[in-house]
Amino acid sequence: MTDQPSRLVLSAQGGVHPKLAECVARHLAHPYLKPYAAHTLRAFAEISPLVEQPDRPLVFDSCCGVGESTAWLAKAHPEALVIGIDKSIHRLDKHERGYRPGNADNYRLVRADLEDFWRLAVAAGWTLSHHYLLYPNPWPKPGHLQRRWHASPVFPAVLRLGGRLEVRSNWRLYIEEFAAALSVAGIPSAVEPWTAETPVSPFERKYRDSGQALWRCVADLEKR
Ligand SMILES: C[S@@+](CC[C@H](N)C(=O)[O-])C[C@H]1O[C@@H](n2cnc3c(N)ncnc32)[C@H](O)[C@@H]1O
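^ thats the input. predicted complex w/ S-adenosylmethionine below
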């Protein structure tokens, strides 16, 4: 994953998608009722007893890939339980094979679909202290707008989870759109360049090694 030089994200889209605001407003107004996948229900039930310890902050590393960032975040938040979530068993399986920095034990990796896991966490009343979404798939084709997390029907669940949300990408427009989607929900955010001096994940490392500019959007989400 790290050997190939990384290419810049190319898109026919020159600015924030013209349908973004309408799309986000629609999702904010209508509940997302897609049935939960059985494997995510099982994974959620397995991790729940660990989460439901009173007074322990909870951090999500959503789209954690091989979980390298999850281990780093566990060191950065020693008081918290950090959960790395990814749908790819192929990536998660690599964690123990070279992507386990340090010896923190306050984290777990979970194989689950975030479309379901986020909604299950909201339904269970979980509240996050921090939520990291590092280098989500950009889906740069304009026709794939709703595959981007901020334009997905599950976006309201991300807002309801609360906490300090940090989204990083090598595609500036993704970050600008994320901020625009937050502002449709009335949430202010900061869009800023990000320098990965010590990369925390394979994607962050390959973008840094290819000399690409990185961007992040940061917002404080009140519990809603
Ligand atoms: C570009 S990779 C970034 C991985 C990691 N954060 C990093 O920086 O190296 C995006 C990750 O999102 C995961 N992903 C995409 N859609 C998902 C979903 N619906 N549920 C869970 N994980 C998902 C993919 O499996 C993939 O590992």
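Residues 146 and 152 are 5 Å apart (CA to CA).
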